[in-house]
Write a structure and sequence with these properties.
Elements (H helix, E strand, L loop, with lengths): L7 E3 H9 L1 H9 L9 E2 L1 H22 L4 H5 L5 H12 L8 E12 L2 E12 L5 E6 L8 H6 L1 H13 L14 E6 L6 E4 L2 H20 L28 E2 H9 L10 H5 L4
Parallel strand pairs: 1-4, 2-8, 5-6
Antiparallel strand pairs: 3-4, 4-5, 6-7
Helix pairs in contact: 1-2, 1-7, 3-5, 7-8
Length: 272
């Protein structure tokens, strides 16, 4: 296998590898574009993704200083309006005052780089550093599942490694970092970070990147449920039809007894 020397890893590519090594190979090594639907009906799926994109754009504009009243007049979608009202009701004043919306940072990881694109960073120099990620699924998935997601590991790690770019050279210590997943239900999921987690995540992700770089073969995942939502399923002889949008939403939300199979917000994310 040959990854480009300038390949940049992200939580999306690392999650793809964790979910299915073959998907990583097809998407990032062979760069195969396979025009399969992720969910049906296609128009409904597209609408859901566009709603999420519009919401992120509204929040970005608000964080840049555009008044909420002015932004609210442009919302004609009832689902989007409900998300917007939930966002405005969240106590944003509890966050550090210095904020960077839609900010990307990268840090070295072995011979490659690791990139994180943050929805919102709120940092108090020498004090708290809060990562907020806006999610648009109706309810939070189980905390245990979120804790295992690569995003929960990658984002605090990158901030600890590269946060001094935002603070004028003052490092952001792992114990100062907290990651918050925001959901429209009003039940944010919080993950305080620690030095021990930082050291463990750095070692694990470095080993993962080295394993990827040395791999000769990329096997298919044994978890067939994930294939129902993968655009490469027909290429891999893992099914012809896409899962329904309802199944996609159910799988993304999950439950304590039945963990989610996919992350809908990751599907909508801009990939690097």
């Amino acid at each position: 296998m040959s990854l480009p020397a300038d390949f940049v890893f992200s939580q999306t590519s690392l999650q793809d590898y964790a979910d299915c090594a073959r998907r990583f190979e097809l998407r990032y090594v062979q760069r195969v574009r396979w025009p399969a639907l992720q969910a049906e009906p296609a128009l409904e799926h597209e609408r859901h993704l566009r709603q999420g994109e519009r919401f992120h754009h509204l929040v970005h504009q608000h964080q840049l200083g555009i008044p909420a009243e002015a932004l609210g007049t442009s919302i004609d979608d009832p689902v989007l309006r409900a998300w917007w009202q939930a966002y405005l009701a969240w106590p944003l004043e509890d966050l550090p005052a210095r904020r960077w919306p839609e900010t990307a940072l990268s840090a070295p990881l072995g011979e490659y780089r690791l990139l994180a694109k943050f929805d919102l960073l709120a940092v108090e120099p020498g004090g708290r550093a809060v990562i907020i990620d806006w999610k648009t699924s109706p309810h939070p998935p189980p905390r245990e599942w979120l804790a295992k997601r690569l995003q929960t590991r990658v984002y605090p790690l990158v901030l600890a490694l590269a946060g001094e770019e935002l603070t004028g050279g003052s490092p952001i210590l792992p114990d100062q970092i907290e990651m918050i997943y925001w959901y429209p239900s009003g039940n944010p999921v919080r993950f305080p970070y620690t030095t021990a987690q930082f050291e463990r995540d750095q070692a694990v992700l470095l080993q993962t990147v080295e394993d990827i770089a040395q791999r000769a073969e990329f096997p298919l995942t044994p978890e067939l449920k994930t294939c129902a939502f993968c655009t490469y399923r027909s290429l891999c002889d893992r099914g012809e039809r896409a899962a329904s949008l309802d199944a996609l939403l159910d799988a993304e939300e999950g439950s304590a007894d039945s963990p989610p199979q996919i992350d809908l917000d990751q599907i909508a994310e801009i990939e690097f």
